[in-house]
Amino acid sequence: MKVSFYTKLLSVSVAVVAIVLVSQLFIHSSEPVTQSGNTINKESSYAISSLDIPLSINFAGEEAPIKRMDVKESFDRELLVNTYWQSQTILFIKRANRYFPIIEPILKEQGVPDDFKYLSLIESSFMPRAKSPAGAVGLWQFMRTTAREYGLEVSKEVDERYHIEKSTIAACKYLKKMQEHYGSWTLAAAAYNAGRTGVNRQLDRQKVDSYYDLLLGEETGRYVYRILAIKEILSRPEHYGFHVKAEDLYPTIDVIDYDIKSGVKNFATFAQKYGTTYKELKDLNPWLREAYLTNSNKKTYTLKLPKHAEEIINKPAEAKKDSLPE
After folding, report:
1. Residue 92 belongs to domain spanning
2. Domain assignment present for 127
3. Which one of 248, 273, 289 terminates a domain?
4. Based on the domain organization, do 140 and 259 belong to the same domain?
5. In Å, what is the CA distance from 313 to each residue of 162, 247, 258?
6. Cβ count near 46 (within 10 Å)
7. How far is the C-alpha of 125 from the C-alpha of 95, rounded, in Å?
8. Are residues 315 and 211 in the same domain?
9. Could you read off the pLDDT of 197-231 as tens digits, one per residue?
10. Cβ pair 191, 183 in contact under 8 A
């Protein structure tokens, strides 16, 4: 009799618990109550917005036909991608503060429009040791053959494709040649990506003379639009939501030029001699590809050394002999 009573009590208890659980399930799965006025608290919400397209855009002074729907959509794509790829674009802004001051004077001196600094940025993300799967390297992503054609030394020990100033000059020579051929800086930029032969083939096939009228492959078809988008964002970063404090920008590095006319047996020892490290020396001179330099031709190479090395260089000979390792 007792067993039967407890069994019934247990059954009733289980039933009550089941009813409570089911009722809670329906309560918590019901539609949320809308706040009065049907408004959302914007301060606590993450909103993604479309972007206004500028009324006019240009590359190197050449207006893009932004009112055309195909051009507008292509530009809109790159503007959205680069605005909402926030981490990369913030890095672009930070690195540009370091490398634009190096590149801009060279472009001006060589007679190449300032906008081509954005081409270098999208080519390498301003990573001096950047290397593509195809083997293009440096800030301007030169291939070996083209680099040599435009005066850069490329060998086992020295690869001037990684030399910022010299590769910028070489890029200017190439771009001026392309502009002379096409009569258009925009097509010169396209040729920098696809090559002169590739662009010529498409111009002949499609019977047009403008980049914006060409049907191109994915990479080259997006290339100029990406430059335009990066130019737009970096020209007005706060308008696109990028707020980077001045102290967070990557600074230019204070260096001195130091000429060497002989070989260097060991760059680690050399760096120590001038108050720096092997890593810092190679970061300042990424075109030095080995831990030594043979220089059998006794060529003059100009190395960059940290500013404080100037004190060591200017020491009297006797003081150097006493304080510097061989």
Report:
1. 58-248
2. yes
3. 248
4. no
5. 26, 31, 9
6. 5
7. 8
8. no
9. 999 999 999 999 999 999 999 999 999 999 999 99
10. no
179-188 per-position pLDDT tens digit: 999 999 999 9
Segment (H or E) for 257: strand 255-260
264-312 confidence digits (pLDDT tens): 999 999 999 999 999 999 999 999 999 999 999 999 999 999 999 999 9
Report how far residue 220's alpha carbon sits from residue 199's, in angstroms, rounded to the nearest whole number. Answer: 9
End-to-end CA distance of the chain: 104
Instruction: With H, G, I as helix, E, B as strand and everything else as coil, classify residue 133.
Output: coil
161/295 same-domain check: no
Do 264 and 231 fall into the same domain? Answer: no
Output the pTM of the full model: 0.83
Read off the tokens for 306. 């940290």
Residue 105 to residue 283: CA distance in whole angstroms: 22
Structure tokens at 7: 């069994």
173 lies in some domain: yes
Three-class SS state of 259: strand
Least confident piece of the model among 39-43, 81-85, 88-92, 161-165: 39-43
Q: Are 65 and 186 in contact (CB under 8 A)?
A: no
